[in-house]
Amino acid sequence: MKIAFIVGEFPAISETFIINQITGLIDRGNNVKIFAYKKRNESKVHPDVKKYDLEKYCHYHNMSENKLRRLLKAGLKIIKNPSLIKTLNFFKYGTSIFNLQALYTADLFAKRNEVNFDVVYCHFGTLGNIGAIVKDTGFVQGKLITTFHGNDITAYLKRRGNNAYDFLFNTGDLFLPISDNWKNKLLELGCNQSKILVHRMGIDTSKFTFELRNLQDNETVKCTTIARLVEKKGIEFGIRAIASLVRDFPSIHYNIIGDGPLKNELSNLINDLGVSDHVHLLGWREQDEVIKILKDTHIFLAPSVTAQDGDQEGIPVVLMEALSMGIPVISTIHSGIPELILDNEFGYLVPEKDVQALAERILYLCLNSHKWSVMGIKGRDFVENHYDINRLNEKLVLLFKGPGASERMLDV
Fold first, then answer.
1. Are 313 and 338 within 8 A, CB to CB?
2. DSSP tag of 29
């Protein structure tokens, strides 16, 4: 199959789920093209980007952040290709036209002289809107499929209103929310149920070695969080929970892997709480470094919350990675997380922003390390059965192939 991915910045170390799908489709002999907003320049790059030489599959429109420059360049594009003006039909496409991304994306397809695809696959509903306009104006043809993740169905709707996807719902062929929670949200928004199928993100479990967790006498309990340092990750509450424990339980350490806009704020919080000897901001790490840290981790924390702007998680892939390695997880009753973390089975769930409840569960696991092994076995088994990327990519191929696939998917 010939598949066009429409994505934002690529490659992004925090969006390994997109890379996992792309490489899985390439492995299965598909012709993949990646149409992206721009290349993300990060100090850390996912190893599969180099292994598969993914940049050779990428085409960037590099739209300027400067609004005036972006507008002037759009004008020049229209002069060269007047048909691009069709992407600016406000009465048909609504506010999705205002950032000009549909025009720039249409121009990218036109310059590549590539119109016909079997599938046009958009990650995030916001880019689904772009794909819908580009397809409707004839710059690309193919089955339009959109995956909904989190921000696109929470904070974005809070800004744009619940009718933001009306045109996409009418134009799109299939919608793939990553959780039952988001499926229900799409139904609330008026999406046709026959067009919706939950398709979860997953991981390559073979890359994450399972180990039984145990605690030696006088050994420090190591807790870990891996996340972008943004509000919805709730890292502040993880830090506060650890800080409330260190006086009575000093043999605990908390490593936070990730970077983001809240780095300085969280660093100041750690210093203000006097726990800099126990809580460490490690920044981003390469995947092999992350796996090494997880290998030594006893408890994984994911204290996710709903941000002030309404932004929520989907189901964090990093939780699958932790479970796959046999690590008990403590998280929150948030978005689709309860679909992955079964409370009292291989992890614990607490209410959002409840520092006391979070601290109590951390302490409970610290004092009951004999439970870790059984929880670890259950967690690994659950991920292998429900979140293995190889099985999910097989399912994705069937989805892309179309009619009749839904029946076959029941066995995948």
1. no
2. T
Quick check: 229 pLDDT over 80? yes
Peptide bond before residue 303 is cis, with ω within 30 degrees of 0: no
Cα distance between residue 351 and residue 338, in whole Å = 11
Integer Cα distance of 87 and 97 in angstroms? 7
Q: Which two tokens stand for residue 36?
A: 């992206």
Task: Describe the strand order of the beta sheet including 252-257 as a list of residue ranges.
Answer: 279-283, 252-257, 221-226, 299-302, 329-332, 347-350
Helix (H, G, I), strand (E, B) or coil at 223: strand
Structure confidence at residue 411 as a pLDDT band (50, 70, 90) = very low
Angle at 309 between CA 307 and CA 312, to 5 degrees: 45
Contacts of residue 138, Cβ cutoff 8 Å, sequence gap at least 6: 83, 86, 115
Q: In sequence order, what DSSP letters do the residues of 341-408 get, joined into one string?
A: S-BTTTEEEE-TT-HHHHHHHHHHHHH-GGGHHHHHHHHHHHHHHH-BHHHHHHHHHHHHH-TTHHHH
Tokens 């679909």 belong to residue: 339
Q: Are strands 329-332 and 347-350 parallel, antiparallel or unpaired?
A: parallel
Q: Is the pLDDT of residue 409 over 50?
A: no
What's the CA gap between 157 and 149, in Å, rounded? Answer: 13
> Contact 337/315 with Cβ under 8 angstroms?
yes
Distance CA 30, CA 194 (A): 26
Instruction: Please report the domains of the chain, with CATH numbers, ordered by start residue.
Output: 2-202+388-409 (3.40.50.2000), 205-386 (3.40.50.2000)
CA atoms within 13 A on the CB side of 150: 21
Alpha-carbon Rg for the chain, nearest whole angstrom, is 22
Return all residues near 267 (Cβ < 8 A) that are at least 6 apart: 281
- Residue 68, Cβ density class (10 Å: 0-12 exposed, 13-18 middle, ≥19 buried): exposed
Across residues 81-93, what is the average pLDDT? 97
Helices and strands (H and E) in the chain: how many: 18, 12
List the structure tokens of 60. Answer: 């960037």
**pTM, entire model:** 0.93
Task: Name the 3-class secondary structure at 122.
Answer: strand
Classify residue 57 by its DSSP letter. G
- Band (pLDDT 50/70/90 cuts) for residue 45 is confident
Q: What pLDDT, in 10s, does the model give residues 230-274? A: 999 999 999 999 999 999 999 999 999 999 999 999 999 999 999
